[in-house]
Amino acid sequence: MNFYSQISFFYDEMTRFDKRIESERPVFENILKKYPARCVLDAGCGSGLHSILLAQMGIEVDGFDLSREMLDLAIRNAETNRVTPGFTKADFLNYPDYIHKLYDAVFCLGNSLVHLITLKDQRVALQNFKDSLQKDGYLCIQILNYDKILREKREILVDIEVGDRKITRSYTYKARTIDFTVTTKFAGRSSKSTTELYPMTYNELTDLLFQAGFKDLYAYGSLKLESFDSQNSENLCLFCFA
């Protein structure tokens, strides 16, 4: 069972799904005003938050995720919100075997890309994204700002309480990767789930995007399209064109 399958039963509580589906609506309205799209691929869709938001805005959406449990969540969430995105079980490397359409935009959000920890896999994924785009279509990638994270070496990212459950998200820094751990404490019991991440910096990611043939790259500090500051921004959000 992979990392996200292990945490799927409390994932939406941890990520505040119900709150974000309302609070992020104007964010995506603003994105689509600046970067229009009618047909979108949600790469690494998780429990379906952004697929559902986009579908509610009249966008044709397909999403894929590696975790069967997360996809089941996405399907239930879509039914609850009365939209019907297409969901497929696949990963960044093999999804072209299952999804054959071309899109106006590919969205890869939620720090998903850094789960690929080798340069080879990162290159394959970005090439797949480019090959999934219509002419002049765009890719939107959102990850954490690892320039800042690697400088500060912060270990505890988030420490929250959801009902009677305490959830801590933390990093352990290794030679070139990071172990991302979610620790839950509930009813006197504690459990941990860990996965490995590659902390991709701004320069590394932009170099890979240009190598894949993307152009006209625009960097922001969040999906709200604020200016990116490598020293202070919490996120790195890149838009680039095929």
Keywords for this entry:
single chain; 242 residues; alpha/beta; Rossmann fold; 2 domains; seven-stranded mixed sheet; four-stranded antiparallel sheet; 11 strands; 33% strand; globular
Give the SSE map.
Layout: H1 3-14, H2 17-23, H3 25-34, E1 39-43, H4 49-56, E2 60-65, H5 68-80, E3 86-89, E4 103-108, H6 119-131, E5 133-144, H7 146-152, E6 156-162, E7 165-173, E8 178-186, E9 189-197, H8 202-211, E10 215-220, E11 235-241
Parallel strand pairs: 1-2, 1-4, 2-3, 4-5
Antiparallel strand pairs: 5-11, 6-7, 7-8, 8-9, 10-11
Helix pairs in contact: 1-5
Task: Tell me what you see in this structure.
By secondary structure, the protein is of the alpha/beta class. It folds into two domains: 3-145 and 200-241, Rossmann fold (3-Layer(aba) Sandwich), CATH 3.40.50; 148-196. Helices cover 33% and strands 33% of the residues. It is built from eight helices and eleven strands. The protein has a seven-stranded mixed beta sheet, sandwiched between helices. A four-stranded antiparallel beta sheet has the order 6-7-8-9, covered by helices on one side. β7 and β8 form a beta hairpin. α1 runs parallel beside α5. The chain is globular and about 55 Å long. The N and C termini lie far apart (35 Å). The model has no long low-confidence stretch (mean pLDDT 94).
